[in-house]
Amino acid sequence: MNKLTLTVPSSKNAEDWFLFVNKSLEHLEEDITELIIDFNSIYFLNTDDFVVLACLIESFYNESCVIKFIGGTEKFNSHLDNVKFKKYWSLGFKREKFTLSYNKSTLCLWKISSEMIYNYSDYAKKYFKNTFLNDKDLVPLASNLGEVFNNIFDHSSSPIDGYVITQYFPIKKKLSFSVCDFGIGIADSINNYYKQNSLKKIEDWEALLKSITEGFSIESTPQNRGMGLSHLIDFTESSNGELTIISNNGFLSKRFKKNYSVGHSNFNFKGTLIKVEVDTNTFDEYDESEEIYDL
Amino acid sequence: MKNIQLKNISRSFNSNKDGMLLFNIFDKTIKDKNSILLEIDNEIAMSSSFLNSSFGEILSLYGIDVLRSHIKIKTTKNQFDRIVNYISKYERVHLA
Questions:
Q1: What is the full DSSP assignment across B45-86?
Q2: A290 falls within a domain
Q3: What are the chain A neighbours of B14 within 8 Å (beta carbons)?
Q4: Taking CA atoms, what residue in B is nearest to A126?
Q5: Residue A76 sits in which domain range?
Q6: Average of pLDDT values for A82-88?
Q7: A227 and B86 in contact by Cβ < 8 A?
Q8: Which residue among B14, B71, B87 sits closest to A146, beta carbon to beta carbon?
Q9: A168 occurs within a structural domain
Q10: What pLDDT digit, counting tens, does each position of A216-250 carry?
Q11: Is A228 in CB contact (< 8 Å) with chain B?
């Protein structure tokens, strides 16, 4: 039996995380039969850490590895139990059917499946409305979750579909969701499109900027109009929020009212990570009164 | 004027395929020189793919004036603002 222990970084630094992912994936060819995820002294993981880790574990699980967990502080293990994280790769657990978490502020980790995109988005809206945000209009949250999911299926060609997790922070009234896939990555996908159209290759961070530009599309389907990720930036800008995209050798971050932060990363992440954080105080009030409008 | 409830057209409002169902209704209404009142529930979340294949396609084919003369919308102010915002963006990016 080939055992492999992966020690999860306690760092919050993206570079540390993606170097960890790349180093870990090098072992995929080694016929590993048991993967041990060691949380060592970890007491907290952000939504982006969770989805990156879930994609990494999924990659090994797809190679028929048994997944085990060790380490982590008592409080952190209690959180993992509440969100059922350790059960996801148990035999028979349906990761693509979302399941309720015991932690009220976290909407379960979900392995994205194309058939259930609308169900998850709609459920996220209903869930947070019924728990913390009953006076708020959560339709933009649902439609933007859909935008990110559609992006995965349109552009990633991911061997695994990807993971999402959504969490509400009641004290700050902030909502965060992260989506990750280990596909070809937005930047490579755009550069492939450029190559097919005899256009000059652009830097990965430039490709990420392109991806959120209104009207830019790689035309992966005839109806693509390049409105999806630009919609997402509108959402974070109108919600006092922040959008972060990491893909291939590029990163992009845009915080409300600040300039874009873009650049070349010191790691090559084969895939795409999108993290959205919004301030729910800025959401419109729930609105039920209907009128007839002329367009 | 015929009333159409969006929630009766499809179970989801996320994909291009979902949007085409609404496009077909718009297209038939315009071709038959009829008009409709489209009722959009305040809980329905429409993605850009859905909107591209419904409102976007019809705008590209006929333009906003034809759409206005055949379609009225019954919904909440929030939902209507989102549709108007989409139409403005679509016109600016794709029809200017």
A1: ---HHHHIIIIIHHHHHH-HHHHHHHEEEEEEHHHHHHHHHH
A2: no
A3: 117-118, 121, 146, 149-150
A4: B43
A5: 3-284
A6: 92
A7: yes
A8: B14
A9: yes
A10: 888 777 677 777 788 899 999 999 999 999 999 99
A11: yes
Whether the complex's predicted ipTM is more than 0.90 is answered with yes
Query: Can you tell me which residue has the tokens 């209404």?
Result: B29
- CB-based contact, A117 to chain B, within 8 Å: yes
Residue A225 has a pLDDT of 75
List Cβ neighbours of B48 (8 Å cut-off, separation of 6 or more): A143, A147, A150, A225, A227, A228, A231, B86
Interface of B with A in 9-38 (CB under 8 A): 11-16, 19, 37
Element spanning A157, H or E: none
Q: Give the residue from B7, B20, B49, B89 with the most A CB atoms within 10 Å of its CB, the best one to mutate.
A: B49
pLDDT of residue B7: 96
Give me the mean pLDDT over the B42-55 stretch. Answer: 94
Q: What is the per-residue pLDDT for A160?
A: 60
- Count of domains for chain A: 1
The predicted-structure confidence for A33-78, as pLDDT tens digits, reads as follows: 999 999 999 999 999 999 999 999 999 999 999 999 999 999 999 9
Query: Within a domain: residue A137?
Result: yes
CATH code at position A209: 3.30.565.10
Structural domain contains residue A230:
yes
Cα distances (angstroms) measured from residue A89 to each of A22, A92, A93, A95, A152: 21, 8, 7, 8, 22
